[in-house]
Amino acid sequence: MRTAKSHGGLTVQAIAGTYVVVLSFDLAEADCAGLMGFSIHRQDHVENESYYMKGNKAFAATDPGFPAGSQYSTKDHPWQSFQWADYSAKPDYRYTYTITALKGDPEHLVPLAEVQLDVTTEAVTGQKHNVYFNRGTAASQEYVRRFGDRSPDEVPNKQAFVWLSRGIYEALEDYLKTCEPGKHALRIAAYEFHYAPFLDLIKKTIDRGVDIRIIYDARQATGPKNTNREAVDAAGLKAYCRERTEGASYISHNKFIVKLENGCPASVWTGGMNFSENGIFGHSNVAHVIADATVAQSFMSYWDLLFQNLKNAPMKKAVEKLAPLPALPLANGECCVFSPRKSLAALDLYHELAMKAAEGFFMTFAFGLNDTFKDVYRNSGCGVRYALLEKKTRAMAKDDPQRAIEEQAIQDLRNMPENIFAVGDFIKTNAFDGWVKERLSGLSKNVKYIHNKFMLVDPLGNDPMVITGSANFSDASTDKNDENMVLIKGNTRVADIYFGEFMRLFSHHSFRESLAWRKPNDPPKPLKTGDWWKDYFGNTQRAKSRLIFK
């Protein structure tokens, strides 16, 4: 949901997804002289709780001397930014946020203006679009607070895995457990297909009498081929599977499940989450369930093609016949794009849609920034363009001379005030003031942070665009690999959920990357008592970010 309210010169806007509420604050520049920050109070009407939210910094003059990793009430140590997000929100909850702009000094904070805003978060289930994001941030202060310096396997009762899942695996289990014999059937297409508890659940579901058929990637020896085979054999699923082997130079990169009801496709589970321990609990991923017969039928027809195990040439021909690219301007609703295709026309379509962004553009990159989208970040007329990257470049050797060239190209884009980039990172030492050392989960190998593949065009507008699925917005994902994407236009609920989760991941990694410019044991950086707000006005990245929320 979206809501906004103004009082006394202060405007507060809320964008609420399922687990995230993003709040933006705005004051006229002339009213900001002496601004110390914003206190944020939350009343939870479901659990009947009421308290000030906390931040990670304190004023030097009133610092209570808490140990590293502690948090401070924004009542006494206000938030010094024009955006704030509640990452502890719960789905389908009603909250009242009270935002107070404060002036004065650290010992005597004085209210300038106050806004009270009622917000209801989105429900996770029971909708046409049900969207699930895993935690995706194992290397975090919250993980350390909850579980200390322990790997997920070392935490009793699988509680670290529950926290990392954030409901995504539970939703996957429910997708199978709700199947009724004689009524439902499942058709699965998988790249990584080796999370043993999931495969065991599939076997139990089959044993209950549910019709399930699977096709999984077995193309490249360097891919998940052998691991998939071993897991399938161990789970007793070989008789229900077919291997995707043709086109051995490429990958069958899908991660979807079609659910049929009384013989008719009823819904599809899709997104970027592999059916592996790493995919579910390790790096960031999204699963997206669409309860729409037309979309489900498209995926079912695509699954039928995959199950034929066609060579690439006939596969491309069949895919383009099944799912021709949509005409522009795109109509509201959903449309599917499948791969492989004969050309890069689908990538060109995404480029054209991206170039039409007017108010904001947000995109994730798990394997480098394709030249098609470098052009968007270089030449788009959109004033605010965010990018969240796993790494600065695609996978390359450190001594590859092309690596420095590509890194410089990314830096050149980052130097443009319209572009706001973040690259995956974590806190590797206790030597930064107020922050404790984090640890990677150990579940991820090739991709440690950002595995998402989605693009948001004007997500805060009235006609937002969300493009999501398995493809990495690359040449290979378009004309070589088996992939799926769904284009969703005009659905503000879906856009709000994706936007909130993008900002959660972006803020997390943006801060951690910023520590690279600091030296360990530098003097602490407390809350500021000067004009910290000036950077939010003028031709700066922060100013442009503030304006997108107005």
Structure description:
α11 links the parallel β20 (385-389) and β21 (419-423). The protein has a seven-stranded mixed β-sheet with strand order 11-17-16-15-12-13-14, sandwiched between helices. Strands 18-24-23-22-19-20-21 form a seven-stranded mixed β-sheet, sandwiched between helices. The radius of gyration is 24 Å and the shape is globular. The protein folds into two domains: 2-123, Immunoglobulins (Immunoglobulin-like, Sandwich); 129-514, Endonuclease Chain A (Endonuclease, Chain A, 2-Layer Sandwich), CATH 3.30.870. The chain is built from 14 helices and 24 strands. The protein has 550 residues and is an alpha+beta fold. The model has no long low-confidence stretch (mean pLDDT 95). α3 runs parallel beside α4 (196-207). The chain has helices at 141-147, 159-165, 168-177, 196-207, 225-235, 277-281, 293-307, 312-322, 345-355, 371-379, 401-414, 475-479, 492-514, 541-548, and strands at residues 2-7, 10-16, 21-26, 37-44, 49-52, 54-55, 72-73, 83-86, 94-105, 108-120, 129-133, 184-190, 211-217, 241-244, 255-261, 264-271, 286-290, 333-339, 361-365, 385-389, 419-423, 454-457, 465-469, 483-489.
Superfamily (CATH H level) name of the largest domain = Endonuclease Chain A
- What spatial order of strands do you see in the largest sheet? 11-17-16-15-12-13-14
Low-confidence stretches: none
The first-level CATH class of the largest domain is given as Alpha Beta
Number of helices: 14
CATH topology of the largest domain: Endonuclease, Chain A
Helix content: 25-40%
Which sheet architecture does the biggest sheet show?
Answer: 7 strands, mixed
